[in-house]
Amino acid sequence: MSNIDKQALLGADKHANQHRLSRLIIEANSAEFRAIAEAVEQYTDQLIAALADSEKRIAELESKLSKPVLLPKTNGYWTEQEKAYEEAITLAKRQVRLAGFSVEDM
User: Could you name the domain of life of the organism this protein comes from (predicted)?
Assistant: First the structure.
């Protein structure tokens, strides 16, 4: 959803619609209609709160993605154990990059 769409939902029009809905609730003769209108108003408020929470979580995750993951530098070791270590670091770097994070050598 673009920022323009979000602003349209969260802007003055939404509040104007709430006032219209509240007025309809007051003027309505049917208890069933009032209950439906109140439920719609509550659900709208829940959706707006969920949208705000989602945007906050997205910002947190984006800040994590902007920080590179630091892994040990591989130096071309020659023993079998050291080769396995180097291969493990290389594999870890590849997997971290595939997950969307940046990787830097220490």
Answer: Bacteria
Model confidence over 69-92: pLDDT tens digits?
776 666 665 677 777 888 888 888
Of residues 46, 34, 40, the one with CA closest to residue 18: 40
- Spans of all domains in the chain: 3-64, 69-105
Structure tokens at 56: 């906050």
What is the spatial distance between Cα 106 and Cα 102, in angstroms, rounded to a whole number?
13
pTM of the entire predicted model? 0.45
Measure CA of the first residue to CA of the last residue in the chain; give whole Å.
Answer: 39
What does the block give as tokens for 48? 């707006």
Annotate 7-74 with three-state secondary structure.
HHHHCHHHHHHHHHHHHHHHHCCCHHHHHHHHHHHHHHHHHHHHHHHHHHHHHHHHHHHHCCEEECCC
